[in-house]
Amino acid sequence: MKVAIGVLTYKRPDGLKRLLAGLELLTFDKVSTPDVHVLVIDNDPEASAQEDCIQRQGSYRWKLGYSHEPRRGISHARNRALDLSMEGYDGIAFIDDDEEPAPDWLDQLLFVQQEYGADVVTGPVLPRMVEPAPAWSKKGRFYERSRHPTGFRMELARTGNVLIRTSLLENPANRFDPRYGLSGGEDTHFFLRVRQQGHEIIWADEAVVYEWVPASRIKPGWLLQRAYRSGNTYALCERDFRLPAHLLLLRAVKGVMRIGWGMLLLLPSVLLGPVRLIRCLQQICIGAGMVMGLAGSRYEEYEETHGV
């Protein structure tokens, strides 16, 4: 088994160092130790990660490759990783430069892929706060994502923790859309297409990745921006897949209903505390993002980088 690990980075030197150190600690018990090749794709036009990667190559536990993708946008960087993994690799796993894997992360992904014959396997991303989290964020569990039992069939996957069988890439349509390079949602767009083609996405609950959440994201404003972006990019993806007009209209109605429901509950939420208020505002933002996405407006969240 020959596996590439695609590491995308953009001006996060400390995060990249932490991630590369974590990847050196990977262990394999459920599957035989694969031939691992870590592919660092530097999306900084100034190639700021190049020197550190080159210095590590001689002593790094795995094969360590560096590639510079100067075209700004996460889709370009992901596609560079896909292109590099086409020759001779059985799969490519993606993990981000603000994340850190559990030691058995790749072992669990590969095991579940083999057990279920899956084309795509994805797993949980658990938050780790750079600074102590405020009480409202803990109570509201705003940074926790849903989890499922291993083997659960998913509609979508996220590229912060995913393993893709490279045979999928033989279809030239299976690339990340550059239009989503700065808005995010490129993974939603990619995996919606993969599901339409009949490929299964399987959940591996033991394949854990930890995401370091910087102080700049532990704020209600960032949560509302993320809610708006989530609604916006999903609606844009639905437009791209040319859903029937009545389904797009239904999505618009749902967006308006979210806005209306949130507005109706806004005053009571103010009286019930910050958690209820933030959840209420999130509903309004998701609904607004959906409506604007269906109208063709795109919110580019990744113009700004969080963390170092």
From TrEMBL:
The keyword Translocase does not apply. InterPro entries: Glyco_trans_2-like (IPR001173), Nucleotide-diphossugar_trans (IPR029044). The keyword Acyltransferase does not apply. Pathway: Cell wall biogenesis; cell wall polysaccharide biosynthesis. Keywords: Glycosyltransferase, Transferase. Residues 6-153 form the Glycosyltransferase 2-like domain. GO terms for molecular function: glycosyltransferase activity. It holds the Pfam family Glycos_transf_2. Belongs to the glycosyltransferase 2 family. PANTHER family: GALACTOFURANOSYLTRANSFERASE GLFT2, RHAMNOSYLTRANSFERASE WBBL. This is Glycosyl transferase family 2. It comes from Brevibacillus panacihumi W25.
